[in-house]
Amino acid sequence: MSEILVAYFSATGITEKLAKKVAEAVGGGLHEIQPEIRKDNHSGSYIRRKRYG
């Protein structure tokens, strides 16, 4: 089992592609960091997620 973890955040997908290549090259795991807020596809800005409960 590998002790390498490649954690990434990608708003546009470019960093995700690179992170996947790095994880494969080093034999590590891959983890996407998801923001507390999400991107609004129409305006390109980030908006807060609603919390329930």
Automatic annotation (TrEMBL):
Organism of origin: Lactonifactor longoviformis DSM 17459
Gene3D superfamilies reported for this sequence: 3.40.50.360
GO molecular function, one term: FMN binding
Name by which UniProt lists this protein: Flavodoxin
Transmembrane segments annotated in the record for this chain: none
Pfam families xrefs: Flavodoxin_4
Domain Flavodoxin-like, first and last residues per copy: 4-38
InterPro entries attached to this UniProt entry: Flavodoxin/NO_synth, Flavoprotein-like_sf
